[in-house]
Amino acid sequence: MHSRINQPAQDHFSTFKGINAHIPGNGDSGRDRRSAGNMRIYMDVCCLCRPFDNQLIPRIRYESEAVIAILNRCSLDWELIWSSAITYEIAKIVDHDRKHNVSTFAAKTTTNILVDLAIKNRATVFMNQRVKALDALHIACAERSGATVLVTTDDVLKNIMSHHSDTISIRIVNPAVWYEEVTGNESEDTA
């Protein structure tokens, strides 16, 4: 395992050939187009899949409602960020209906981040902190995009990165907790 860590970044990601193929949108290189009050949201694939998980489990239902609410806001005044890493991971979903449903969220995006060598190198930093390769790419893509947050339902990823928060430029948050925090603040602002 230690020899893998010392390999060049491109070797870590050799299985992701074609990761930039078939991405939706404009192929934005990550320029920051943030305006006042605009949230830039990067959701990883486990988060995008949450509305299609078993809704009989209370936590899943609660997170699903938050994901849907966030996606709805992305149709109004927030921006959903997409990346070739997201497209690649969705393409690997076996269930055709789930893959199709999750893919439709791409229509809500205006910014798409292409994985390049700089993103792969940045992802390697996270992999050295025991983050899985695709999760590391998501963090690096979210940073490149200037996202406000990376939203995930992956507790392991959140926990690992909470110990390394000084090494990242974005917050990694649970959808339900973060949405409640943000909408609670909006309610306070209008009161």
Can you describe this structure?
Helix 4 packs across helix 10 and helix 7 crosses helix 8. The N terminus is likely disordered. The protein has a single domain, classed as Rossmann fold (3-Layer(aba) Sandwich), CATH 3.40.50.1010. Strands 3-2-1-4-5 form a five-stranded parallel beta sheet. With 191 residues, it is of the alpha/beta class. Helix 9 links the parallel strand 4 and strand 5. It is built from ten helices and five strands. 38% of the residues are buried.
Q: Mind telling me the CATH superfamily name?
A: 5'-nuclease
What portion of the residues fall into strands of 2 or more residues?
Answer: 5-15%
Q: Quaternary status of these chains?
A: single chain
Q: Main sheet: which strands, in order across?
A: 3-2-1-4-5
Tertiary shape: globular
Domain unit count: 1
What is the end-to-end distance? 54 Å
Low-confidence stretches: 1-10, 21-36
Instruction: Give helix % range.
Output: 40-55%
DSSP strand tally: 5
Number of helices: 10
CATH fold-level label: Rossmann fold
> What is the gyration radius calculated from CA atoms?
16 Å
Sheet of most strands: 5 strands, parallel
Counting helices, strands and paired strands, the structural category is alpha/beta
Question: Which CATH class is shown?
Answer: Alpha Beta
Key phrases:
191 residues, five-stranded parallel sheet, 10 helices, alpha/beta
Question: Briefly, what is this?
Answer:
The protein is α/β, with parallel strands linked by helices and 191 residues long. The chain has a single domain, classed as Rossmann fold (3-Layer(aba) Sandwich). Strands 3-2-1-4-5 form a 5-stranded parallel β-sheet.
